[in-house]
């Protein structure tokens, strides 16, 4: 899996210093607030076909006061990289919303990979196609992954 995909989750990206998010009125905030479970990570595979990677299990939380946390557990793997340590990805931090752009900026304060992500920020695009789903994508044109979450 490309490192950039994990960052959302991921980084979610992988974990999203929230000051702006809680300063907005509740009616202005998109409905990302709540608890989400991972549906699917989409990565480009060979010949731009979707990758057939085993899907991790995961949870993402966005709070009203601008905090976020994400955890992913990859099946039967000892995968380790910038985002994952021995098959487990976990980050926490804060987020700022840019609702007019459908973007959020995730500020990582803690990570299972420690110094590799702590202190970093990632700008991510989000779509809410319905009241139960959220799709997160990178804002970089050269990255082509997406993560679909479903509200608990």
Question: Short summary of the structure?
Answer:
The chain has 152 residues and is mainly beta.
Q: Mean pLDDT, rounded to whole units?
A: 82
For this structure, the quaternary state is single chain
How many angstroms separate the termini? 26 Å
Q: How many β-strands, per DSSP? A: 8
Structural class by secondary-structure content: mainly beta
CATH class designation: Mainly Beta
Say what the CATH topology is.
Answer: Lipocalin
Shape: globular
Largest β sheet strand count, sense and barrel closure: 8 strands, antiparallel, barrel
The portion of residues assigned to helices is: under 10%
Keywords: Signal
Domain Lipocalin-like: 33-151
Organism: Silvibacterium dinghuense
Signal peptide: 1-23
Give a description of the structure:
- The chain has 152 residues and is mainly beta.
- The protein has one domain (3-151): Lipocalin, CATH 2.40.128.280.
- Helices cover 7% and strands 40% of the residues.
- Residues 1-26 have low confidence and may be disordered.
- It comes from Silvibacterium dinghuense.
How are the elements arranged and paired?
Layout: H1 3-8, H2 20-23, E1 34-42, E2 57-62, E3 67-73, E4 88-98, E5 103-111, E6 121-127, E7 133-138, E8 146-151
Antiparallel strand pairs: 1-2, 1-8, 2-3, 3-4, 4-5, 5-6, 6-7, 7-8
């Amino acid at each position: 899996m490309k490192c950039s995909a994990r960052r959302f989750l991921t980084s979610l990206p992988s974990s999203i210093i929230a000051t702006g998010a809680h300063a907005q009125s509740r009616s202005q905030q998109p409905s990302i607030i709540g608890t989400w479970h991972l549906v699917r990570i989409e990565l480009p595979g060979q010949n731009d076909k979707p990758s057939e990677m085993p899907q991790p299990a995961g949870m993402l939380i966005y709070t009203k006061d601008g905090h976020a946390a994400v955890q992913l557990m990859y099946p039967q793997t000892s995968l380790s990289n910038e985002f994952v340590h021995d098959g487990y990805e976990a980050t926490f931090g804060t987020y700022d919303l840019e609702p007019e752009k459908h973007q959020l900026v995730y500020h990582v304060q803690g990570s299972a990979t420690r110094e590799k992500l702590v202190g970093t920020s990632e700008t991510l695009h989000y779509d809410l196609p319905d009241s139960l789903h959220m799709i997160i994508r990178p804002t970089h044109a050269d990255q082509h992954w997406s993560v679909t979450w479903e509200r608990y």
